[in-house]
Predict the structure.
Amino acid sequence: MIQRKQSIFLLMVFILAIIQFFLPFQTFISAEKTWFVCLLPGCSSDVIGTTIYIPMIFNLLIVILTVVTIFLYKNRVFQYKLANLSVLFNLFMIGFFFLLSFANDGFVGSVNYQFGAFLPTFSAIFAFFAAHFIKKDELLVRSADRIR
């Protein structure tokens, strides 16, 4: 059934991953200009000198993985594994966001983190809760099978 608690948590992960594309996650401040860095291609990759394709790919994988996970309600074991994989991808994305601030060797100025850098944390928490409730459902179904 799609109308379970974990589906709501997975829907929240999906919404946060979509919002993540449009919110800036870093601000580079120099003496003459301020740049906002977001995940959309061509947003501001000229500022940091490196591409931000790795976090963008992880975010795209999270979006696809979450949609697939929502509709795998008949195979709870695989759904549980995919929800845990979503948590892992969110944690990798957080690491890459903070790693990008060290990758800008030629930039002179300060780097500030925006709210978008912390969205994967909330997304990972929601994915963890979804995995928890999927496991809880699987244990309930297995205990009901033993009774019969």
